[in-house]
Amino acid sequence: MTIPYSKPSLDGNEQRYLLEALQDAHLSGDGRFTKACHAELEKTANARKALLTHSCTAALEISALLLDIAPGDEIIMPSYTFVSTANAFVLRGGVPVFIDVRADTVNMDEALIEQAITPKTKAIAPVHYAGVSCEMDTILDIAKAKGLAVVEDAAQGLGATYKGRALGTMGDLGALSFHASKNVVSGEGGALFVNRPDFAERAEIIREKGTNRSRFLRGEVDKYTWVDKGSSYLPSEIVAALLLAQLERADKINARRVALWTAYHHAFEDMERAGKFRRPTVPQSCSHNGHIYYLVFPDAASQARARGRLVEAGIGAPSHYVPLHSSPGGQRFGRVAGSMKNTDQIGDGLLRLPVFGHMTDEQHARVVEIVLGL
Ligand SMILES: *Cc1c(COP(=O)(O)O)cnc(C)c1O
Predict the structure, then answer these.
(1) Does ligand 1 lie within 6 Å of residue 342's CB atom?
(2) pLDDT at site 258
(3) pLDDT(1) > 80
(4) Which atom, in ligand 1's list, is nearest to the CA of 189?
(5) pLDDT range class, residue 7, cuts 50, 70, 90
(6) To the nearest 5 percent, what fractions of the chain are helix, strand and coil?
């Protein structure tokens, strides 16, 4: 592949901090690098409380435990998402209830939430696709009126906002990812934003194997013990050291990605008008982070043709999710509420183009040239 789909930018303080973490010889979690990451995330997102986890999947699992999801409880979510949005709840016996996405933003259609609510509904899990926010005011209003929790899957959302609020800080809980495929990476990694003060202490306990070790480390109790359900969800200091270096440069990485995204967007305007494909829509209320630039072709055949031409030219151009409602796991563990028309169409037609921090203007121009020739 001459132009990869994605590639991390690792030329800041990554090596220095990794070496320092090794020299500290504090390799388990919750040392100084983890604390610095918490502070940085809380400051830049204006979040009440951030907790590093070993993945976004782990942050979602903590959320399901915090909400005491029990067998039969229903969680409304889009079908066009990564498996972890659903599996975190399925692990507790929860039932994902899939609703369609909007054709313009590829986010859950907020107008379809109410028809999916039943007496068993416990939570709504909006997924901010490509770092573009869901229509959170409407979602939060519905949740409040119906007494439902909101868990934001903000895996792709670091640095993006909705009406000035950081993604992941608007619901009761928000999950972020620092997987190698995201904008800011630690290989595997994630974080949980705990936005409700009454969840703060229990979130720490669940993350620390069901113990009150976090209070012990702060000197609040003289020994720690088993107090609740939990598992091992915290990352090592090695991971936190790498992440801190990335968080320091998050704005720079995101700015370059947004510039590349915007240049694609201008370049393909005429082709959209000619009906070749649809370009992404970013609502006025959203500021995004350039996580994904995608095109939505009219059908699977035209998408496959375009993908073939790009791959032939050595350009990484992947499709994205197999909609969960049509996957074996989704059929076994979840159910659909209403038509999945947009989800099916986007599942067939969506194609992603390369965007990464160190992508050169020449590489970008080459991708544009191939797409314009489609
Ligand atoms: C990447 C991603 C995840 C999973 O993140 P991990 O950190 O790999 O667990 C979950 N949901 C969405 C929408 C994602 O894009």
Answers:
(1) no
(2) 98
(3) no
(4) 7
(5) very high
(6) 40, 15, 40
Helix (H, G, I), strand (E, B) or coil at 51: strand
- Partnered with residue 51 across adjacent β-strands are 192
| Cβ(155) – ligand 1 distance below 6 Å | yes
∠ CA(337), CA(342), CA(345), 5° rounding?
A: 125
Kindly report the protein residue whose alpha carbon is nearest to atom 1 of ligand 1: 155
Pocket lining: 81 vs ligand 1, CB cutoff 6 Å: yes
Cα 177 to ligand 1 centre (Å): 6
Per the CB < 8 A criterion, the answer to whether 69 and 333 are in contact is no
> H-helix or E-strand containing 254?
helix 250-267
Question: Each residue of 121-149: pLDDT tens digit?
Answer: 999 999 999 999 999 999 999 999 999 99
Residue 57 Cβ < 6 Å to ligand 1: yes
CB distance 179 to ligand 1 below 6 Å = yes
Written as one string, the DSSP assignment of 282-339 is --TTEE-----EEEE-SSHHHHHHHHHHHHHTTB-----PPPGGGSHHHHHH-EE-S-
Indicate if ligand 1 lies below 6 Å from the C-beta of 31: no
Measured CA distances, 315 to 80, 309, 364, 370 (Å): 24, 9, 10, 9
